[in-house]
Structures are given as structure tokens and as C-alpha cells.
Amino acid sequence: MKQRLVLTIAALLTCLQLLAQTDTIQQHNPTPKREFRGVWVATVTNIDWPSAPRLSSERQKNELINIFDNHQQAGMNAIMLQVRPAADAFYAKGREPWSRWLTGRQGVAPEPFYDPLEFAVNEAHKRNMELHAWFNPYRATMDANTSALSPQHPIRLHPDWFFSYGGRKLFNPGLPDVREYIIQVILDVVKNYDVDGIHMDDYFYPYPIAGQRINDQATYEQYGSNRFTDIRDWRRNNVDTLIHALADSIHKYKPYVKFGISPFGIWKNKNQDPDGSETNGGSSYFEQFADSRKWVKEGWLDYINPQVYWHFGNRAAAFEKLTSWWSDNTYNRHLYIGQAAYRINEPRNSGFKNPDQIPAQIRYIRNNARIQGSVYFSSVSLRRNYGGLNDSLRNHYYATPALPPLMLWRDSVPPNAPRQLAVGRTERGLILHWQVPLLARDKELVYGYVIYRFYQGEKIDLSDTKHILHIQYNPMLSAEDNTAERGKNYVYIVTAIDRMKNESEPIAVTAPYR
Length: 514
Known about the structure:
Strand 1 (36-41), helix 2 and strand 2 (78-84) form a beta-alpha-beta unit. The chain has helices at residues 2-27, 57-73, 100-103, 116-126, 154-157, 176-192, 217-223, 231-253, 284-287, 292-297, 319-327, 357-366, 379-383, 389-397; strands at residues 36-41, 78-84, 130-135, 162-165, 168-171, 197-200, 258-261, 303-304, 334-339, 373-376, 419-425, 430-435, 448-455, 468-472, 478-481, 488-497, 507-513. The protein starts with a helix and ends with a strand. By secondary structure, the protein is an alpha/beta fold. 45% of the residues are buried. The radius of gyration is 24 Å and the shape is globular. The chain has 14 helices and 17 strands.
């Protein structure tokens, strides 16, 4: 007991020292102009949305609008919306049945009819936020009760594709037909919806449960034993094969759609592999057969979003050690840190009781140039303002807008600059007008615009986010400034952005407001 107390105090002192260091960091590290600011909106068991099954379509829409408004006001620029929680769908243009967490009964469409994903994409883009469609790849049920499954559920159509584990049904990743099916399920969304990204969570092979075993020996003998002497290596190869094929398939149809995965935070511990992190916890490589580092090393992913759900100084997995390890292992792909907003509300989690824990993590992340942002689990934790975090984001850390970080391996060609920028007056202020840029070298159409405002004579610095007046994800050729003050002289600057958020050269106009 005494030794445990000493370790706890030591960990606490380490945590406090790191929190103090990040205060110094923040003084020299202003809000970046490009930063991924995402939030997971979970639909499984109605964690975030809708608040309950069987709500009217209008109530569902209003709830989602309120969620998006809240996150927009807090400075978020990306929504990770769970659209396939358990081989079911929150969208119409696909092959799997409607989710029971949407309508209360699997296979039953919303009434009156609407398409939740189509609605969500449109509403996110109106608020200048990306929408990443979040899929759970292998989970087929949340419990052992299959009697309520729709006749169109894949368990009904292909019962031989599944094994039971921990009271749930899971797709068998070793079956080629299963891998092809999952690819086609995801391509339904890629082809039919204007999503910005495809996102997968951490559920690959199941998390280990004492006394349970994965019943895939026969599949291994049929498909893997001729190539692999160890069933565990075969399982990892099954996951790798799916990820690689998905990356190729997604980008074949829409090169601008980003592909990212949010694995369990630890790849391997150093005591398991010298290349692993200085941690002592479970690992995705050994426990879920998910070789998450390989996916970025091979260039299959556009971003990796590990769930680093621990606090500074944690003995098993210290936030600072794990975050730094990932930043050394991204192989020139994006790294977004998954942050545990929900843990602020856990009664026994002392590390997150300090209201500066997650803000300090943000400062720590921003001090590392190899990390491009954060994603928070989950929406309801932010909206309930656990620990005042949502207030901190809205009023301080995300108080000014940010563009998503560039992915130059996807698209490095910016649009041309807007033309003929002019300023007029309205009853409420000033209005800018411009003309469409000439077509870019890659023939890609303009996706939106960024509007900046400076006082005349002020240094022009487009990297200073406090001068971003507005970011718009639409091709409208005008923008209003209803906050302009009479008697002031302004310089307005407009740039064009393409789908991957490459930014053009600026065009400027001077505007005295009398």
C-alpha cells in the first residue's frame, strides 16, 4: 500500500509539472491556421444521436442541427458521424437495413422519410465542417438476441459469415467474401454521398474476454494455413488486406475522400517490441490483430487517429509518452489525437478531474509540428460541458476558425485566385463580391472561399487566424461583414479553396466604411 501511494504521488507530480510546462508552451504557440478539430457523434445505443429511438423525423433533424450548431460555435471543423454501428445503416442508399437506434426497429425507415446521412452532410457543410462517415467494420450485433434482426440483415442472409464472441455476433475477417462485402458497403456511401472522409473505429478482431476464444480455426485451415504458420499472423493479414483494399477502392472512386482509422492508443509496448511505446497496457497489434502503425507506414491511410485516452503521467500509458511516440511513427501521414472528453465525468478518474487536463493536452499537441489536430469522444461530453471544456474550446483554444490541414499526397494543386473583388454597402454593414477564379491547372472546381479582414495600415498576415472573418464551403460569390464599424478603413482579402482545402493566392480590396 505504501509503495502504491508513493507511485501515485510521483505520477501526480509528473502530471503537474507537465501541465505547468504546457502553460509556457501556449504563450509562444498561437492558434494554428490549419488544425483538424473533430468530434465523434456516436449513434450506437443512442450515445449521442438521436437521443432515443422512435423519435419523429423532425425531432431527429432538430437534434442533429442543435448538435452541429453547438460544435460549430465551439470551433469544430469536422464531424465523425457513426453511420454503421452494427451492420445496419443511418442512410438510405445502401444494402444494409435501417438501424434500430434510429427508428426503434431494425429495417424500418424514418417516417416521414428522410435520409439522415444526406441531411447530415448538407448541414455540416452549411456550417463549414467536414463530415466523415464512421463505420464499425466487423460488429454485427450488440447482444446475443438475433430474433429482432431484419430479414435483410447479413446474419439472416449469410449466417456462415459470422462467429459469436462475448455474447455478440461478429463478421469473420478471414473470409474473402466478408472483406469484399464490407468494401462494397463502404463504397455505397462513397459513391452516393458527398462525404469528406471514411472513418473506422478501433473494433477489429474483438477485445479479449477471459474464457472466450475466437472460433475461426476452420477458416484459418481453409484460407491461411498454407501461407501462415501462426493463426495470429494470418488474422493480422486479414485486417491489413481489408485496409489496403479499402484505401485503393475509396480513392479510385473519389480521390478527395480522406480515409482514416482510430485504433486503440497503443500499437505495441516497448517490452513487446523495441519499436513500441513506453507503455504497459493492452495493444492493438497483439489483442485485436490490428497492425495500426503498418497502415500509415505503407501509406494506406490519410490519417491515423489513435485513442490516447489517458492523462499526463499515467503509469500504464502516459499521454505525453504515447502522443510523442505516435508523432514519431506517422510516416508523413496526418496524426490526430483522440482525446477523452468523457473521462472528465468519470468519478474515479483523478487525472481528468483537473479542469486543465485536456486544455493542457491541446497545448502539448500544438507544440508538436508532427501532430495536426484532435478528435474528441464524444459529442455529448462536450455539449454537457464536462469540466468546462466546451467553454474553453469556444472562448479560447478554438475561438478563431481553422482550415483542415493539407494532404499534399492527395492534392497539391491550389485553385486560382478570385477575380475582381469589390465592396458594397448594405443596411447592416459591408458586402463583398467577386468573380469565379479561372479554372485551376488540375481542372478542379472551386469548393469555397476564405475571407480575411485587416485594418488599413495593419500588417497583412494570412496565418493569423484572428483575421479570418469567414470560411465558407460553398461557391457563393459574396460575403457580408455585419461587424464592420463606421469610421474604420479596412482591407479585405479573399482566397479560393478546393475540395482538399488547398488555398489560392489572395486578392485584396481597400474599403473605407463611412
